[in-house]
Design a protein that fits this description.
The chain is mostly helical. 87% of the residues lie in helices and 0% in strands.
């Protein structure tokens, strides 16, 4: 039981340190979230696109199953859209003084 309590305290301390770091560097936070979003969304999406492309290529004569240029352009386009969305959503939050907000609670 003591080891579980120690682990939970360490996880809580790591979470607090992470939040403090994110508050000090909001742009790094935005880029980290963007990288995670692209990684979590793009990898399964590309895998599904490749699989469905192979399925459709077997049904349509002369169709290519994998087009790397199209996949790359699509991922870059979606990354730009995600970056614009994150920037629009967090630009007002980035101006807030996090220390003042935490002191008021």
């Amino acid at each position: 039981m003591g080891a579980l309590f120690q682990l939970s305290r360490e996880v809580a301390q790591d979470a607090r340190n992470t939040l403090r770091l994110w508050a000090r560097r909001p742009w790094h936070t935005c880029f980290a979230i963007l990288a995670l979003a692209i990684g979590i969304g793009a990898i399964p999406g590309i895998a599904a696109a490749v699989l469905s492309g192979r399925l459709l290529a077997s049904l349509v004569e002369g169709a290519k199953s994998v087009d790397a240029l199209t996949y790359t352009a699509t991922v870059l386009f979606l990354a730009c859209i995600a970056a614009a969305g994150i920037w629009a959503a967090t630009r007002s939050i980035a101006r807030l003084d996090v220390a003042e907000i935490l002191r008021s609670e």
